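INFO worker-7 received task bundle
INFO bundle size: 2
INFO processing item 0
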Amino acid sequence: MTKRDVVGALGALAQESRLEVFRLLVRAGDGGLAAGAIAGALGLPAPTLSFHLKELRQAGLVRVRRDGRSLVYAPDFAAMRALLAYLTDQCCQGVDPAPRPPAGGRRKGEPACASSSPSTSETSTRPSTTTRGSSESP
């Protein structure tokens, strides 16, 4: 995947409705969903949905097939994997991202792509020594 492809894919996903459409399609799997089902599930008017699906198709993240009178949209999982591989390779500089955290997410302060080196794991498990007032929400 080229940098241009990555920018196009991320740009397509950087819009709230398109991201919701893509998430819905990923959950639907390879079988995809008809445009009417997508519109109904997300409450989008047909012209708006058509525009967003066009953007996702142009970015290479979604493919379409005709099934009778319906257009069925499905995620392009190969493109999604290529995008994730590019981000992992380029953003994490080839270091394997940290293993998936247990239910509940990452530990506080732990980066998304932490290396498995001792220095990284040691610093990510230490409590914060910041003395300033906390601005975090509960």
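INFO item 0 finished
INFO processing item 1
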Amino acid sequence: MFLFALLKTPPSPPETVAIIALLVVSFVLVPHFIALMSGWNRLAQRFRADQPFVGTVWKFQCAQFRYGMNYNNCVTVGAGAEGLYLAMLPLARLGHAPLLIPWNEITEQPKDTFFGPVFVLTLGREEQVMMKINSKLALKIEQAKKENFPIR
């Protein structure tokens, strides 16, 4: 409605339909494109979580995937005996299947950046998808991993 207020004349019915169609297509295509670029799609081919996750979860987390794809406050991260759980919040889930990546498919490396320490996780031995998380979340994951899977 605000957009229409900027126009001197209201849009015609075909223009309104075109605007609505563009919004719907964008709402569907953009999340799929982001999942493709970030590597989430590639991980989902092998690590799709088909069962409810059992373990400790933290909602509204941030992560950065390859090509600078930032997932800000929209990722649910979990740690359990089976592995690392990643899921998007329901409104952002389109194109992003929940993932459960076994611990033996993950390598981690601490890294110092200008903004502070981060951990770079490499997800999937074959896929090699990089995911950066802050050190605070990495410590929570490590602690939950020890509680749920005491033998490494």
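INFO item 1 finished
INFO post-check item 1: The two ends are 56 Å apart (CA to CA).
INFO post-check item 1: The helical segments are 2-6, 13-38, 40-47, 135-148.
INFO worker-7 idle
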